[in-house]
Every structure is written in structure tokens, then in C-alpha cells.
Amino acid sequence: MTATIAPSTGRRRSARTLGQRVRGVSATTAKYLSLIVAAVVTLLPLSVLLFASLKTAPEYAQTGPFDAPQNWFHFDNFVTAFTSGKMLEGFINTTIVLVVSLVGTILLGTMAAYALDRFAFRGKKLVMGLFLLATLIPSVTSQVATFQLINGLGLYDTKAALILLFMGTDIIAIYLFIQFMQSIPVSLDEAAMIDGANRWTIYWRVVLPLLKPAIATVVIIKGIAVYNEFYAPFLYLPSEGMISTSLFRFKGPFGAQWEVIAAGTIVVIIPTLIAFLLLQRWIYKGLTAGAVK
Q1: Average pLDDT rounded to a whole number, residues 234-238
Q2: Which CDD domains does the entry mention (predicted)?
């Protein structure tokens, strides 16, 4: 009986092992195929953009989008985009608005998250519900009231208008800080209070340094959003150029200089690409922190 069972058992094990190997190979193949498809989908538009930026105006009009440029060292479009588009002014204005907005968003967001997570007060659930409700309201529906408010405060056509708008409209950052703060033990606060620290000292010296991954996530997500924002600078700061509105100068009623716009777009993409490459590990850590307790 033993001699009869052993071969069948061995065959079953061999079949099971073969099936596991086939499934493993299939999973690996599917993984690499998905990565290849994602890389093609991501890099194809960028390659078309790069080809267009290196072409002259007649060459761009006479060739297809996937045709390589005749001269790979034709950088006149980049010079035109940077000078005629006043991209240096746009970079300076965008940097000022971006830095001040990010600092304000981080301070207001972490303070609000600390208060909502660490304190128990009447109406706490109502406040959380109002924050959630604010994320469901499209910003376009409140633009008339927002414009009247900014104009009434005398902030129209100033950088302060953009800074105020960007600082006060990021509910997602508050929720991200709350999720991460819930993973910080309350015992740290209690230990600091035993040592004589007040609530401000606990927030500034204990909680805030531990929020670095979440802060890095908010910086890159919020920074890219502010950097690429077109509508708010175009509406509230018409006299000064931002990096997102600089490219609009090459679009007129008689057509558009698409090869110059492509060159300017490449210039705009480079800072965000560098920032993402430098902060990507902090982004992933900040997005996953607090998800599992």
C-alpha cells in the first residue's frame, strides 16, 4: 500500500510545485508588463514634448509629433521661452508665494491637527464634519464670493491674495497630519508635561519634529499644486507673472507658438521632477504612516 501511495503523493507534490512555479512566472511577467506599460504611458508624452521643444517653427509645422528633430542642439526655443516669457520673474514670484504658503499651511495644519487629536472639546465632531463638508464643495461654486472677499480686503492683484487662498484651502493636509499624529503615543505628551512642558512646548519640540514624513508629503503635494496652479494667479495676480501663467504669453488670438510652449513646459517640469526625486521616500512614508495601527 505504501508503494502505491508514495508515487501518487509525489506526483501531486510535483504538480503543486509546477503550478506554483507557473503562477510565480505569470505574476512576475504581469508585474513587468504593467511596469513597461506605465513607463511608456508616462514617457511617451514627455518625449513628444521634448521633440517639439527642439524643432524650429517650420519644422514643427511640417513634421509629425513622433518625428525626431533634425538638430538635437537647437535651444533657441528655450531661450525665447525664458526671456520673452519672463520665466525668471515667474520663478521668483512663484517661489515667494510657494514658500510662504507652505510654511503657513504646515503651521496651521499641524496646529489644527494637534488640537483635534489631543484635545476633547464640545463640538469636536461638528468641526471634523465641517472640514469633511468643505472638501466636498467645488471651489468653483464659491469663486464669486471669494473674489468679492479678496477685493474687499484690498488684496486684489497682490501676492498676499494668493498666499491667503493657498494657506486656507488645504483640508487634506489637516487630515493627513491627524492620521499621522494618531500614531504618536500620547505618553510622550504626558512625559513632557511631567517634566514641566506646556502645550506649546509639547507641540513645538515633541510633536512637530515627529511629523517630518507627513510634512514632507504635504510639501511635495501642496508644492506641486501651488506650482502648477493657473486659475488663481491668472485671476488674482494679473499684473505679475507666475511660472504657470508665463507660458500663456505665447498663446494669442492668431495662433500659438507650440514649439516655444513645449520648451517652456520642459523648463517648468524640471524643478518638480528634481523635488519629487529628492523627497519620494518621505512621500511614501508620509502617505502610509498611520494607516496601520
Answers
A1: 89
A2: TM_PBP2
